[in-house]
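Researcher: Go.
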Amino acid sequence: MSKSNDFPVFLADYGPSFARTAYLLTGDADQARDLAVSALVTVGRRWASARWSQPAHTVLRELYRRFLSDKTSPVSGSFPLASLPPNVRAAVVARYHDGLPPEQAAAITGLWTAILDQETDQALAHLKATHPHLFAGAAAPQPAEAPGRAGEPRQDPEAASPATPAPAPWAAPEAASPAAHEATPWTAPEAASPATPGAPHDRPGAAVDGHGAVDPPGTGPWAVPARAWDAGAAEDDEPAVRSALIRIAGEMPHIHLADAVLRVIGMRRRIRAATWTTLVTGSVAAFAVLTMAAVTAVARNIEQVIAEPGGYPSSYQTPEKTPDAIPAQLSDPIHYASQGYCGNTPNEPANPQPCGQWRLTTVSGAEWRLPGAGAGYDEDTGVVLPLAISPNGRRLAYRDNQGSYVVQDLPTGTLRRIDVDDEQLAATITSSPNGRYFALAFDGEGTTTSALLDFDTGVTRYTTGKEVEVLAVRDDGAQVISERENVDNVPGHAAVTTIELRGAQVYAGGYRIDPDLVAYGGALSPDGQTLALVSEGTHLVTMDVRTGRVSSVRAELDDYEVIAVERWISADEVLVRQWDDDYAFLTKVNVRSGTSTELGSAVSEWLDYDSPIGALQE
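Model: Structure:
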């Protein structure tokens, strides 16, 4: 994970809240820490897409999923929630501590929606009967001040609930529960419908007789005394219940998860790459294969040292060499880029020091830095300063130190300005395959405007709409635009996404698609007619950009986590960036056969989670 994004800020704001939720689930501080870290690592590895889709809820779903699926040590009998079955305990915590609506609580706990309230009412009555001191004189907790954007006062992490984040750089409209989806006329890949979550025959903890009947709530070792059951849990009791859970969660020691999470995400790749480079430098290529196992073992040993309380030993820290500034003209195409790291040295993202500037690696292996360009997370504006590289590696687009977005042609040194005011919002930059056009779009709610620069003419065109995102740009300047709009009249969805193809000579589309299809971005085929997208985070699908028709071929991508759809590299192959426990890598997917292969290992050796990519070579 690059240190240039806002993930560390998210961890600082919400990490303690996730730890308290994990403590309510596990009843043990050490298990809670491990559970929270593992959930945050999973989401952090795909932060580039998760940050725009309610990441707090995404982390909660992952945290609950891991709790219910992983084997954990038995909860101490002294823990107030120990007597509740795991799925019921999770339902109580989700509803009354994290404030999730019933549909989402049912979806993540596996309880049937129709009996969720019965189960939670019974559980709360049981807790009141067995632990009355928790509810004695309980008052409704005071609402915490919502976290603001960078530069504004943030809420106290100790009082924050991760399920109710206020608008932040990563906030997004309320997502509908997967359990609430209904058939719609939207375009989406055909897929077998999964079994209804929490159905009686597979609901965890449900007792089923020979006729398929489910035992009524109240049976089992945690059954409520008869007198307590009559009381139930009225809506008026919710503040008292929430206050009691907050009181229990307060037993969790305050811990900072950011260091542990970022260390797991990013350090392994850096250690392995650095160790491998050191060995290869002093060895001949013939011994490379023989020493790979030793390199991996050394890296793992170092990782174990990192996990110790003492942290990362200084003897393994090697200062990064700062490369020379890029020359006025450069004929060597850019292969990829990454942001420099200044360690504990203060650095201003809008005008970074040499150590924090973008590092550009060319196809020949030379390394340069890019002075004059913003790089990193700007705490004053709460945005990440982007860099884009044309697929041929000969043009760069970025925000300069004066706050303007520019495109630089490397062979000639020519600069073109994208004629748009800086909106002080997170921006994405998309290049056409031939590098002639660069589209700039700002992330934000409501009406937004994107700008398209024609580098050859210097002319900028504009597109305005509801939360406009540019998925791809054709070589003729036509753009594939997605617009997201909040709705309250589409069953199972809180927002809809519309796809259009807009250009000076062409217009098509205007159809709705499942919003999840654009969560990982999209790539347009060389002929400009087919859009590659990721469905359900596990399959690559193609869609006719004019009609919205989705191909029946679904390429499997579920071996590793998907980061983003990068580009088409031939008429039949799409490049997808993925991530495993060690490093980011690029996968070639054949859209006709559905087969996939990893792009040459040399390409991925130094590729980071969100490194901009330019010219590629096998």
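Model: The chain has twelve helices and 25 strands.
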